[in-house]
Design a protein that fits this description.
heterodimer, A: 542 residues, 2 domains, B: 7-stranded mixed beta sheet, 9 helices, disordered C terminus
């Protein structure tokens, strides 16, 4: 037991804590590791409280408070996966400490379980932060059960957290098995598999929304039909909530067992081949038949750019996490073009309403713009690019290139990808929604300015909050304070533009675009100035 | 080629890693830098390479101050840390091409140099494979090749012989001599005292961040061995006391 707890302690610290960068100030060290976990927790709490309150206050008066619980339970199971589905592969199947781990007098099952439990603890925090506000809303809306219900919900969370942990383990294990057999296609497999899982999650989410989205049952007060719609899509969630609110202790115990026992069984199953799998992952098949041909030449700036591109496209976790919104934006734009006819009919119906309809239509360009900016702000490339240098930072620091050129490559690469996406998406959206060319021009300019701002500000934020000693890239990409802060910065910017639009409501989209463009341009200049002054000093101190 | 004057570096928490260190490496010299763990060797090397800022003193490389003219100083320098981490997502040849681009090495020259050093270190066959598949020794060799192809005037190496097989060690020593014969200089740290004794023209011994001995190898070693000298210094010599052994004019 002592050995297991020692392994768990090390695994958890490895997952969460960082020593911070050498020479960094205490404030910067504190903002990484635990700080990013606190930030994630606050985001979870905010989302859960907001959703729970919205659903509870809408469904409660209609006698559908249990539907709120079902929705939040489902969210508590799926949402942590967004942050952790790739973590199991790098945490549980890491080969960095292979020699040490395999030489310890501890069973493979204990090693695996300790690593998994570190991940479980992180997931548990998220699950509880999603469930507890729902429980509070349940009590506020007169759901009954008192503090005992809340405690029961906490206990439920403890068992529920095993479900996403198991999913992450299965995903990580399958990826690792594939990689161990086909090392040459490691990145391709990881990317394809990850895209498949993401597609699966999106289908689940769409199912989830669809079960709310028909709306007819809600509008007619037919909560039973509504309950059946959600319960039909996700039966275990309905059973769990019924057992909680019943309460049915035996059913609850059975559900707890169904959460825990498969987790233990699958972990044990993997542990049987754990050492073999780790050894295969650590073995490298080296081809030694390379013949030196003509060596290409290029500029130093081009070399830096190509390095950033190679890193981005060659690291599945980086590509999928930092660049997923590009895929979503382009996919959504293409879908909009395909359904242009349907969109046209829908807009026509709105227009036929009269003055009110015309007013709603006038909101269309700014709404599309703000959605575009929201997704453009979710690209986390430059804001992790310094951290991803990690132990190879010495190569850039000893190279005879100015810091400005390094910054240009990093922020420039982010801006290039965002810019290309915007230049592709905006004309498609303009065509699909039949907008004016002036609207398209405004969306292009504002989109590009916003992308430039996020690219440069993200890089500066990473210089302020670097994480140079993470064990692997996934931890940097998924658990960096710089990512969270950049995300919040983007949200605040978009929120600010929304507020600006409503403040200038009577003046039209054109004038709003000019003013917003001027503000974004000034902010871009400020960000570039900060990078060139404070940013250089921060980089030198790394 | 390299002039360090009164270099001082203090880390956060008040730890003085290097204290008032001065030494000079002339063109054509292989200069060894020896000291116990934590003596300040790596700090000194990194400060010279322009990677680490320092609190006092000055460093000039080929006449360029590393603080005022960092790019010019780095252009004539090649630095390799101990256990160098490389870009694992690149293949060997792509990494060498990257370095060649950064250092503006002409196309023809880089072709010849890569071929020469890759053959010398027997790494040509694996240059097409990703660095992530290399062993530690292969990575060390690749890092050395990336330093040699730059034809630096000053080569800074931190523990260069760790992980190298005997043939690679021999080749490395050969190429270090080549650099010095072409007018360059080499400044490297090592714990392998036999190598330092045989290879280095001059040696500096650092203890507690301070230079305690510096001069020509044969003068420092005398009739003893470098190991004995080092052990004696480690046990007895006060770090505040530096012995510069007089050298004859070249």
């Amino acid at each position: 037991m002592k050995a297991f707890l020692a392994l768990l302690n090390v695994s958890f610290k490895n997952l969460i804590l960082t020593t911070g960068n050498v020479g960094g100030r205490k404030k910067r060290k504190a903002a990484t590791g635990m700080g990013s976990l606190v930030l994630i927790s606050l985001v979870m709490l905010y989302i859960s409280a907001m959703y729970s309150f919205m659903l509870g206050s809408t469904l409660g008066p209609l006698g559908g408070l249990d539907v709120m619980l079902m929705a939040m339970t489902l969210m508590a199971t799926l949402f942590p996966l967004v942050f952790t589905i790739f973590a199991a592969q790098s945490l549980v199947f890491s080969t960095k400490d292979l020699d040490l781990v395999l030489s310890l007098p501890v069973s493979a099952f204990s090693v695996m379980l300790a690593r998994l439990m570190a991940l479980y603890l992180e997931i548990l925090l998220m699950v509880e932060l999603l469930l507890i506000p729902a429980g509070v809303v349940w009590l506020m809306q007169g759901g009954g059960g008192g503090i005992g219900f809340l405690l029961l919900l906490v206990v439920t969370g403890i068992f529920l957290a095993f479900v996403p942990t198991l999913i992450a383990l299965i995903f990580g294990g399958l990826i690792s098995l594939l990689i161990s057999r086909f090392q040459r296609f490691k990145n391709l497999f990881t990317t394809l598999f990850s895209l498949l899982v993401l597609a699966g999650v999106m289908v689940l989410v769409l199912n989830f929304n669809a079960s709310f989205g028909s709306g007819a049952e809600l509008l007619t007060g037919d909560i039973e039909g509504f309950r059946a719609a959600i319960g039909g899509a996700f039966p275990p969630v309905q059973w769990l909530v019924q057992a909680l609110t019943g309460p049915s202790p035996l059913v609850l115990l059975a559900i707890f067992a169904c959460c825990l026992l498969p987790f233990l069984f699958i972990t044990w199953l993997f542990s049987l081949s754990y050492k073999k799998l780790l050894t295969m992952l650590a073995s490298h098949k080296l081809k030694s038949d390379y013949k030196l041909g003509a060596v290409k030449g290029g500029s130093s700036g081009g070399a830096l750019f190509r390095k950033e591109a190679k890193k981005f496209f060659g690291t599945p976790a980086y590509l999928l996490n930092a660049g997923i919104s590009y895929f979503l934006l382009i996919a959504a734009s293409v879908v909009a073009v395909i359904f242009k006819g349907t969109i046209g009919e829908f807009l026509g119906e709105i227009a036929s309403v009269g003055a009110e309809g015309q007013m709603i239509l006038s909101y269309l360009p700014p709404i599309l713009l703000l959605v575009l900016l929201f997704f453009a702000g979710l690209t986390f490339i430059s804001c992790v690019s310094i951290s991803l240098e990690g132990k190879t930072l010495w190569i850039l620091k000893e190279a005879p290139i100015g810091t400005g050129r390094i910054f240009f490559a990093k922020a420039g690469f982010n801006f290039l990808l965002s810019g290309i996406t915007i230049v592709v998406c905006v004309p498609l959206v303009t065509y699909a929604f039949n907008l004016w060319l002036a609207d398209m021009a405004a969306m292009l300019v504002l989109g590009l300015l916003f992308s430039l701002l996020v690219s440069t500000a993200g890089l500066f934020i990473n210089l302020l909050l670097p994480r140079m000693d993470a064990e692997n890239d996934t931890i940097v990409i998924k658990q960096s304070a710089s990512v969270i802060v950049t995300m919040l910065f983007s949200f605040v910017m978009v929120g600010g533009l929304v507020a600006l639009f409503f403040a200038l409501q009577g003046l039209g989209f054109a004038l709003f675009s000019v003013i917003a463009g001027a503000i974004l341009a000034v902010l871009c200049l400020l960000a570039i100035l900060l990078l060139n002054t404070k940013g250089r000093k921060l980089f030198a101190a790394l | 080629m390299l002039k360090i004057s009164q270099l001082t570096k203090t880390y956060a928490g008040g730890k003085k890693a290097v204290d008032n260190l001065s030494l000079e490496v002339k063109p054509g010299e292989v200069y060894g830098f020896i000291g116990h763990n934590g003596a300040g060797k790596t700090t000194t090397l990194r400060a010279v390479a322009g990677i680490l800022s320092f609190d006092g003193g000055s460093i000039t490389v080929d006449g360029h101050d590393v603080v005022r003219e960092p790019v010019a100083a780095k252009r004539v320098t090649a630095f390799l840390p101990d256990n160098p981490d490389l870009y694992e997502f690149l293949s060997g040849i792509k990494f060498l091409t990257f370095i060649a681009d950064i250092y503006d090495i002409p196309k023809d020259t880089r072709q010849q140099l890569i071929a020469k050093y890759a053959d010398a270190f027997e790494l040509t066959g694996v240059l097409g494979s990703p660095i992530s598949s290399y062993s530690h020794g292969m990575k060390q060799k690749l890092a050395l090749i990336s330093a040699f192809i730059r034809q630096p005037k000053l080569l800074l190496l931190d523990e260069p012989f760790v992980g190298l097989d005997p043939v690679a060690s021999f080749k490395t020593k050969e190429h270090l001599r080549e650099i010095c014969n072409a007018g360059g200089a080499v400044f490297f740290s090592t714990h392998v005292l036999e190598v330092a004794e045989k290879l280095c023209d001059k040696i500096a011994i650092i203890k507690g961040g301070r230079l305690v001995e510096a001069g020509r190898t044969k003068d420092i070693v005398g009739k003893s061995s470098l190991e004995n000298v080092f052990l004696e210094i480690a046990q007895e010599r006060d770090p505040g006391e530096t012995h510069y052994l007089a050298e004859e004019d070249d």
